[in-house]
Structures are given as structure tokens and as C-alpha cells.
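Subject: Sanity check before I submit

Could someone independently write out the C-alpha cells for this chain? I want to compare against mine line by line before I put it in a report. The sequence has 331 residues.
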Amino acid sequence: MPGATGPIGIAGAGAWGTALANAAAIAGNDVILWMRSQEQASELAGTRANERFLPGARLLDRIAPTADLSLLAASHAVLLVTPAQTTRELAGALAGILPRETPLVLCAKGIERTTGAFLCDVVEEVRPGAPVAVLSGPSFAHDVVRGLPTAVTLACRDAALAEDLAVALSGPTLRVYHGTDVRGVEIGGAAKNVLAIACGAVTGRGLGESAKAALIARGFAELLRFARAYGGEAGTLMGLSGLGDLVLTCSSTQSRNFSFGFRLGQGMGVQAASGGKLVEGATTAGALVALAREKGIDMPIAEAVEKILSGAWTLDEAVDVLMNRPIKSEH
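---
Independent answer below. Compare away.
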């Protein structure tokens, strides 16, 4: 992509898509912001405000809202900022529109529920030979759109392309590091959402800060085991897209996954706790646990979350099982 020209395309105008659109514009790019609804696109073009998903944020002038997916063909990179379970559908649609050399940057965090496939593998299946990257790290949309200092990681197997994309997206308050460990970055983003549900449940149940700290530490050990088994690098998981994102997501009610778990801990059922909103960790938990079982990876916290969500265990039963596991060495 060195020397490439054209706008940054962003597919998805939720909170994170809107925040990334503003960040890309501040970094000096023209931006095409695509959404499914023509009504929403017209409203954004007129009001320059996405009150539904990101109240109080003004859309910058360099951003062009549209509901016409074909307009993304002019982009020199497209950020896919839609829910993880829609990745196959939208990447397939873009495959018929984008030039083969246009990078697709995955910004969702999850695993395809129906196949157990990592999202990069899904994209490579529907867009064979085209470049794919992953953007992940400790970042809340409201922080980014307010211009608060934030750092994330972008990984692509092509090191030069990863660097070019990181430079293109970095601005005065968004710092984008780059690397080539695509698998490690996407696993960090997917697994931490499941673990954040557990942390939220512990907090909502009033089990104390000591319990939450222990859960984060042991959850991170699970994440590392899983990532290593599937080709991720330990160094990546020690960085922004692993430990950094885990700590943020497990510590704040701004995290939808943590808030969902918090409401579970207060005694709400799964449907009520979601509040009708998408919770990526809940859609990922079953796939994550299934992949762990395939390789014999011990992930007791993730398994407990999956059992709570499926109704097999209550939260109290999950805590009892976890606290009464055989005593063993920490490492």
C-alpha cells in the first residue's frame, strides 16, 4: 500500500465505527462511512451527529456518510466495524466490490459461532489472496471520539502494509502500533470479551476486588494457553491487544460485556441482562470453549461463563466449582 491514495472506508456506523471515522479524519484522511440504512445516512449527513450510537459526538466534515456499499471501492483501505457474526456476509459483499489489493481491516472481536472459525480465516475464505488486517486494543468509543489518549494494535501478515496502515490511522490522540501476529491480536480481542462477562458477574455479585483481581490474572493465563495453542505469540498477548484490552474490559461499566456480566451477577436472566443489545462475549463463549476442547486447553473460567449462559449452571454453582478445583502449581 505504500504511496496509495484514496479515502479510508469504514463499514459500520455504530459507536466504534463512528469513533474510528472521526479518528481517521483527524489523522488527515477523507472518510467514507457506510451504514445499511439510507435514512440513517441521510440523517448523519444533515445533522453530523450519531445520537443513536454515540451521543454528543459531532461527525467531522471530512466524513461522507452513505448507504451505498459500492462507494467503498474507492478506498485504499476498508475498516470492517460491524458485529463479528456478520463478518462473512459483509466481507462476501465487499469481495465483489473492492479491488483485490484493497486491505480489509477487521475491527470486530469474536469467533464465528456457526463454524468456530477465526474472523481472519473467514475473510480469507471469501476474499482469497486479498490482504487482511486486525485492529484491536484497549479502547472505548467515547474516549476516542473525545480525543482522549488511546493506543491500539494493528496486525497484518505483510509487515510493510501493517506499518503503512498504522501510520495512516494514527493521529494526535490515537496511537496505532503495528505487528504481524494476526492470530494473537484477534484471539486477544475475542477471548477477553468472554472473561469480561465473568468479571462483571463477580462484581455484580459483590464478591470483592480480590476475587476480581484473581479472576483477571487466571483469565489471562487461560487466554495465553489458548493463544499459544492456536499460533498466537506470547509477546502479543502481553501487549495492548491482550493484557491491555483485558484489563480495560474487565474493569469498567463502559464495557458492554462487563455490564452484561454485572447484571447477571445481580440476578438478572441472560435476556434481561443483555438489554436487547449485542454482547459479543456471549456470542463468542460457546465457540471459544469448543475450540479449547478440540486442543485439550484448560479454560475453566471461559467454560463457567459458557455454562452460565446456557443455563447449565447458576453463578453460585460456577463459583463453587472454580473455588473447589484441585490445588495445583500456578504455572
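---
OP: Matches mine. For the report I'm noting this point. The chain has a mean pLDDT of 96.
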